[in-house]
Amino acid sequence: MTERALPDGGGRRGGELQLALACAMIGAGGVLLGLQLDGNGAISGTGFTTLALGGLVALVATLIQLGAAGRLPRDLPAAISAVMGFLGITFLIAGVLAPGGSWMFWELLVLSWVLARRRRAVQPGGPEVGAGGLLLLSLMLLFRLWILWQGSRHEWQLFTVDVPVLSSLPFAWLEPVKHITIGDFSQQEMGFPPAGLDFAVSTTLWTAGFTLCAVGLWLRNEAAREVEIERIHALVELLPPAAALIVVRLLPETEWERLGFFGLSEWRLARRMEQLVSERVQNQLQLEAAFRGMPLAPPEGGEGFTASIQQALAGYAASARPRLLGEAGETAAADEPEQEEQA
Amino acid sequence: MPASDQNRLGRLLMTSAIVLALGAILVRGIAPPRSGLQDARWRSGAHLEQPLQLLSAGAIHRRGELDERVSAELAGAWREARDLAFGLEGCPALRDWLEEQDGQRVELLVGQLRDGGPGDALAALTIVFQVARATKWTPGFPAHAEHAERLGGLLADWLARWGEAGVAEPGLHEAALVAALFYGRVMGVAWSAPAFGYNAASLDRARRFLLELTGAGAGGRTRFGQALQARYGRAFAALQADEEDAFFAAFAEECALLLPDLDGTCDD
Questions:
Q1: In a domain, A248, yes or no
Q2: Is the ipTM of this complex over 0.90?
Q3: Contact check, Cβ <8 Å, A195/B31
């Protein structure tokens, strides 16, 4: 059916291609976020702890979003896309969490709250991360890079504050009281490889991985919507062209997501469109009937809101009445022989 | 693009995505490699037990063991240098003594031994450490940085020849690392010698030399750098410290633990 409606198949395949590209970007980003380079230039993994915690937060976010407005995947590409969405969020969280210590659990708490908030829009392709979530993740990445930078210099605190006067005195025995350290952490918390961390290369890997994952997730969201829009268009285009045009005007593309079309099966989508078209046609007919009975001239002496609205309606009625009355007259004329026959 | 090509590309990308996602999980399990360089100390072969004793105050009791390990052609040089260094008394200022006949002779012999094999190199280092123990190289008053600078020069020459090669030698592995720590300690004394201010040239020289020796700057760690990081991580980290105090303090602390008698004052 779809192929008949879109003979070249280009539009739909374009959306799926975009979806596949987004998934590949997420996978590549995950690989980069999972690697680090030690001081001797040897590659090692970043471990499973943060991955497991990231997976936990992503699972909570997925379940809550799915329960609020989600739809289960309908086919294999959609299922793969949903899984990649879940993994993308997992990789992102694992990539930005502080490697250990109490900070990590505070970060988990904040991320769970931000990512698991219910969304008003339907999620056609699995869990999503909004702009606010991505901003928060970016800030956490910066925080992680900062403490790793400090750790790579064997500075085991967030920063130090010089004590006025004392810090300027050239006596070594005053060293313990010259500075105040803020936010201490230990080497064990950082989880560095035995040979230390090659900060420059590792940071490049993680930043590139984060960017790939974040862009991949955003692109996947857009592509999932695009695929849904193409699917609905394919269904509409099964109608004769004139009817398809009317349906698209009655149900504009911009409203499809709000109307809950995304993620519906073909059968349920068709039923839902039938119902909405019928309702809107009825509304249209009632509106036109109301215009037919409306006086052509606006009431005199009115001011403000009432007068403005009435003038606008009367103007439309005056310009459209000949057409409306003509259609009504033709309809009435066409109905007369039928009524006679029925009588 | 034809539809069939788009389909094929889409399938390829989706397959790549699955493979990459699996890879992203698996790579996290890659364990960091152990530093095998520490094992070099224990490698079997004709190595010397506890070679650090030859650099400590107890070297006087074991110096005879080096007779068998020094190459035949340098045996004479070794014996002569050994007798001069271990017979040194009175705690003269290091630079002054090196200007004397005996000192000049020892410096020449140390150079010959350093250019020999690993056994000769250990003998050369034993002589340097013994001279450092028997002479005065602290600045005193008025400040004299030249003694520490001269001692630092002897150590730097030895490290330049045997630093990188020494960590692969069972008998020299630990000695080479300790020589680097002692070099940092000595150059720290030269740097802080002036009563007011510091010798910036000493810091610059020491930092450049150690960064090149270890590869802790740009270009990747050398084997010596890897061994120093594995064994004396704090000193290695100090190479990248911003503050001069921190740079030298780490070497001084390590030396104070390993070689407490080597403080440049001849005091036991």
A1: no
A2: no
A3: no
